[in-house]
C-alpha cells in the first residue's frame, strides 16, 4: 500500500510540472496510452452512433410514424425503460464485468435494430413527409415498439454507463486529458447522429436508417470481442500493463483467471 501511495505521489508531482500540450502529446506518442484512450473513446462513440439518442430526441416522432396515436406516452415508456435498466447496470457491472456486459448487450442492440428494420419494411410510410399511409399499421408497429424497448434495455444495462467508466482504462498521468477526449467524442458523435436522423429517415427510408444503426452496433460488438479488455477488480498498476502489448484482451483474461481465487477469499473475509 505504501509503495502505491508513493507511486501516486510521484505521478501527481510529474503531472503538475507538465503542460497540457505535453500531456496531450503523450497520448499519441506513447503506444500503450494511445491504445487505452482509443479503447475508451471507441466505446463512447459506439454508445452515441448506435442510435440511442435519436430515439430519445425523436421518440414521439418515431412512434407517430409507426401509427401510435399517443406517441408521447409511448416515448415516456421508453424513457422509463432507460431509467430502470440504468439502475440494473449498477448491480451488474461489477458482478459480471464490463466486457461480459458489453458483449451481450451490444449484440442485443444490433439484433433489436435488425428486428426494427424488418418491421419497418411492412409499414407504409411516405418518406418525403414521414407520415404513415395507413390507419391500421397492426403488428409491425407493435414489433417496432418492442424492438426499441428491448434495444433501450440493452443499451442502458451496458454501454450507456460503461462508456463513461471506461476512463478507468486510461493511465492516471493522462486521465484528465483522456477524459476530455472521451467527452469530446461523446458530444461530437451525438451532434452527428442527432442532426442526421430525420434526413436519413427520408433519404434512406426508416429501414435504411435503422439498418445503419444496426451495423454500427454490430461493429461495436466486434470491437468489444477483439479489443476490449476486462479490467474488473484490477488495481491501477495492473490496468497499466493491460495495454503494454496490444489491446490486452488475452492478458486481462489471464489476470482475471489468476486472481479469481483471491477475489473469492477477499469477498469471504469482507463478508465476515
Automatic annotation (TrEMBL):
Its main location: membrane. The chain crosses the membrane at residues 36-60, 72-93, 100-123, 143-167, 179-198, 210-228. GO terms for biological process: myo-inositol import across plasma membrane. It comes from the Eukaryota. Residues 1-232 form the Major facilitator superfamily (MFS) profile domain. GO terms for molecular function: myo-inositol:proton symporter activity. InterPro entries: MFS_dom, MFS_sugar_transport-like, MFS_trans_sf, Myo-inositol_Transporter, Sugar/inositol_transpt. It is a multi-pass membrane protein. One of its GO terms (cellular component) is membrane. Keywords: Membrane, Transmembrane, Transmembrane helix, Transport. It is found in: Membrane. PROSITE patterns: MFS (PS50850). Belongs to the major facilitator superfamily. Sugar transporter (TC 2.A.1.1) family. This is Major facilitator superfamily (MFS) profile domain-containing protein. It comes from Penicillium nordicum.
Amino acid at each position: 500500500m505504501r509503495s502505491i501511495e508513493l507511486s501516486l505521489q510521484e505521478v501527481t508531482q510529474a503531472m503538475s510540472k507538465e503542460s497540457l500540450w505535453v500531456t496531450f502529446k503523450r497520448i499519441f506518442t506513447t503506444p500503450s496510452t494511445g491504445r487505452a484512450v482509443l479503447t475508451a473513446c471507441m466505446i463512447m462513440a459506439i454508445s452515441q452512433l448506435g442510435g440511442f439518442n435519436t430515439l430519445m430526441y425523436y421518440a414521439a416522432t418515431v412512434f407517430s410514424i409507426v401509427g401510435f396515436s399517443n406517441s408521447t406516452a409511448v416515448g415516456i415508456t421508453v424513457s422509463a425503460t432507460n431509467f430502470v435498466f440504468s439502475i440494473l447496470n449498477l448491480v451488474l457491472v461489477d458482478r459480471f464485468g464490463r466486457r461480459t456486459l458489453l458483449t451481450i448487450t451490444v449484440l442485443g442492440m444490433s439484433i433489436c435494430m435488425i428486428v426494427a428494420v424488418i418491421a419497418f419494411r411492412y409499414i407504409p410510410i411516405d418518406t418525403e413527409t414521414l407520415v404513415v399511409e395507413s390507419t391500421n399499421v397492426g403488428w409491425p408497429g407493435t414489433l417496432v415498439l418492442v424492438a426499441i424497448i428491448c434495444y433501450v434495455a440493452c443499451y442502458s444495462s451496458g454501454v450507456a454507463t460503461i462508456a463513461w467508466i471506461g476512463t478507468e482504462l486510461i493511465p492516471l498521468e493522462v486521465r484528465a486529458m483522456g477524459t476530455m477526449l472521451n467527452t469530446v467524442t461523446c458530444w461530437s458523435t451525438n451532434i452527428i447522429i442527432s442532426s442526421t436522423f430525420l434526413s436519413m429517415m427520408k433519404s434512406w427510408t426508416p429501414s435504411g436508417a435503422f439498418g445503419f444503426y444496426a451495423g454500427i452496433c454490430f461493429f461495436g460488438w466486434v470491437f468489444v470481442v477483439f479489443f476490449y479488455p476486462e479490467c474488473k477488480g484490477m488495481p491501477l498498476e495492473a490496468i497499466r500493463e493491460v495495454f503494454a502489448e496490444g489491446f490486452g484482451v488475452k492478458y486481462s483474461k489471464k489476470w482475471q483467471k489468476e486472481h479469481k481465487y483471491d477475489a473469492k477469499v477477499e469477498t469471504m473475509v469482507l463478508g465476515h
